[in-house]
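Standup notes
- DV: blocked on the single-chain target, sequence here:
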Amino acid sequence: MMAGQFMGYKMKYWVSGKRMTTEKIQMLHGSLTDFGDFNEERAGLKLLPFDTEMAVEVVAFNDHFDSLPSNIVRFRTPKGAAPFATSYPIVEECDANNLKAVISWRDSPRTITPVTKYYVEYNTSFTPSTWTNVVNVTTQGVTRAEIPLSYYANYSFRVIAENEFGTSEPSAYSFQACMIPTMNVPEKNPSNVHTDTSKSHWLIIKWDVMPQIEHNGVGFGYLLGYRDQSGMNVMNRIEDWTQDEYRMPYYGVYQPVEIFVQARNAFGDCTDPVKIHDGHSGEAVPRVQPHNFELVSLQENAACFQWDPVYLSPEMMQGEFKSYKIRIWKAGERDTTENIFFVNDESIIPCSSDFDEALNGNTTETMTETAKIVNLPFDTDLEAEVVVSNIHFDSDPSNTIKFSTPKGGNGVTQGGMSKIIKALNVLLGRL
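- DV (later): unblocked, structure below
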């Protein structure tokens, strides 16, 4: 119990072992309403030296005296901390003729550990919520940067500081905007120009939309062109800058075309040379399908299949060959149990073991495609077929085969012991 009017607390802290020369006091004014509630009083210390052994004690005080001190608590401060946010940048120069801005800023006086890098970012009136890193300053002590700009845009700037312990919060943005009213032709053309071959009898040309910061003026759009093997040239103007594709009906299936997309605005066409890209019209269902699909062998839950190969030319595939696919499902439950295995997947291996060759009378002497599918369910009636696929379409399926997996262990179905004996005879004949 304290005699007199309670005034608050004092936190006394010092570097361990150096109390006489380093002690400081932090005053905590306030009052306790009810000691019986066992209220927990909390307070924090700021601007402590880094990587230092510290000691702290607390006393209560009234208008005349201090209480006896609490127990002494000792702790070690961390080795450092991330910077505090810098001041907002000041636009020292906004040069519309040379398309550059010069900005400067100040470190926070609360930042103790030296800053090693500044990230300078800008936003524009086109996308005010999007900040783009444009310049990094790594020279010690330099808090000034020159920033390259584009035509026909309004810019604001902010700075993020970094040291070995982390990055600061972004600074407030610059109060003064940098306005570039000058227009010019676009300086680049759209990227990722390609054809989409997913729709038969259509030519679909796609590209990445160019953001407004790259328009360099009003009236921005695209000039699109293509040329096919017949020599037909088609040009089309796209006035909507947000458009990212052009579609037109096309008579041929997977026909090669040359395409380009050029940027333009009211000031003129992009001066960067336009690039010609190779593409194709849409794919369709392959004209070919696998035949003579059969089960070569079945060992526990691994099945080996073979079938006659098909012609994989673009004309017969009506597209770009992608893979053979083996479809397997439980008999009578195809809709809910079908699994598809891509034969070109690394997990699917050809049937090349001596045992499999023996069961088929040495398959390597005939032109066949083979694949081994593993981890099939035991003791199950299954059905399977194979198709050949281009990027977007599957062929008509092969014949469907039916088979049953064993209950497990080392059994071999499809002929049982007689085929095992046949296989062994073939193998012994090669010795």
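- Follow-up: The longest strand covers residues 153-163.
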